[in-house]
Amino acid sequence: MAQGNNNNFLTIPSQEGLFRTVRVERSEDNSNDEDEEEAEEDVRLIPRCSPIPRKRGSSIADETAEYMRIRLVLTNRRVSFADSTGAELVDVRMFVPFDSDDEDDSRWEEEETRYRKAYREPTYRVWPEFQPLTGAELMLAVHTNKLEVESVTSVPDEPLSFEVLIRVLNVSFHKSVYARSTMDGWINHFDYPAEYVQGSNDGETDKFSVKLAFASPYIFNGARIDFVVRYETPDGEFWANNSGRNYSLTLLQSYEDDTVQTTTADTTELRGILKPP
């Protein structure tokens, strides 16, 4: 009876072939004796469907195969280098030190002159915008105003400077003479003391001189200096300003080759490009 009912119970399937025996070799170091090594086999059962474990990290062959597989999948790209097109890979530049010898300095100056534009040295000339008084008119102005500008002359080797000669009436032995000038229309002005001219006393008048000059940034063609003169004595202070018009001088700028260029242009013969009939 019991034997006939065995078909009603579940049977345990056979486990043969479901597992596979894997032997793993391992080595252990003996701390007491470093020279002796002992190998031991470790037997493990793993399921048949499980992958075989392997060491981590891919070998060089695996990396090469992976690189080739990725390269075949990607589109073809071309990379060109400078040497394949005939160009040089290295740009060589040479620098000359500052403390080079005279030969290198002369070569440097020659190269600089070659690429530098020709610079023309300007010529300056001071032009008075007033006519100084002379003779009886000068003496009349000196007696009336107690001082007057007698002359304006250029200074040798200083084209931007000029010297003003002032005649004053000998009112007192103690006296001071100044010239007040401006180059920006009296926005700013400066007082320059004049010096006594030795041996200029004629019993009635004395002479004083003062030097004025054009200065940067007022060094250009058409620059102008306006000035007046002042005479200080214990008896009072006196001024002269060219009858209210100021004493003015203009700076004229020119170049040495301006005349040469004008002459060449005038003498050049013009020729037509059309043939005569």
UniProtKB/TrEMBL annotation:
Specify the CBM21 domain's residue ranges: 141-250
Note the PROSITE patterns from the entry: CBM21
InterPro entries, per the entry: CBM21_dom, CBM21_dom_sf, PP1_regulatory_subunit_3
Q: Which residues form the signal peptide?
A: none
Q: Pfam families of this UniProt entry? A: CBM_21
User: What name has this protein been given in UniProt?
Assistant: CBM21 domain-containing protein
Which organism's genome codes for this protein?
A: Cirrhinus mrigala
